[in-house]
Structures are given as structure tokens and as C-alpha cells.
Write a structure and sequence with these properties.
With 140 residues, the chain is α+β, with helices and mostly antiparallel strands. It has three helices and six strands, in the order ααββαββββ.
Amino acid sequence: MHGTEWNLDRIRPHIAAHLPLAALLGIEVAAADARHSLVRLAASPHITRPGGSVAGPIMFAMADVAAYVLLLVVREEAEAATANLLINFFRPALELPLLAEAVLLRSGRRLMTFDVRIWPQDAARDRLVAQATATFALPG
């Protein structure tokens, strides 16, 4: 679906309608432009593991949503699908909210690859709790 700009006013309802798990987990789209996207994870009863840290699958979901949002802005391909997502966890995520920022690494004809970094909102950006590399396959 080309022709209508993918901005926050269009992205947020699209995510709510097509990725309802994001809202259940407390993941919200905070920013999106051609340079980067940013999603935020608020406190939710469904996101922690024993000991109080944010569960790995939740940060995996944050990385996936952040990359998908940037893909929407850059390529307008709503039907793109995750082809690969590799995530590295550096330390327990004990502080909320968390932020996940995606930046584009490569945009090819059939694949797009993103770098996604996750850190606590109130910490320095270099105090990462996780980093992911996400690759999406484009339709067609």
C-alpha cells in the first residue's frame, strides 16, 4: 500500500490492529521517522520473570516492533515479515520503562536489516540491556 505516508498517526492504529500483542505487553510506538524508530515498554503484569527483570521474549518483541515500525516509514511494506532476529542480552533489565531504538543497516531489494538497541529510559543510552539485529523479508 503505497501513496499514504506512514507517520505516527497511521502507524499506531496499524500496530494496534495487526500486532495486538504489543499493547498487551505494554509496547507503544514513541517515535518514527526515516532515521530511526523508538518504542517504549511501560510496566505491565505480563513482562517480568522471577527476580523482577523484564523477560527476554518481551525485549525480543520490542526489537521486532521497533524494526517493523522503521520498515513501514522507509519502505511502506506492511506485509513484510521477520526473516531473522538475533538478540544479545547484556544485563538484567530491572528498570522501567525501557526504550528500543531501531536504525536501518541495509535496505536491499528483498531484505532490510536493522540494528536495535534497548536500554532503560532513565539510564544513559550506552547502558544497554540488549542489542538485536533484525532482518525483514519484503513481499513480492
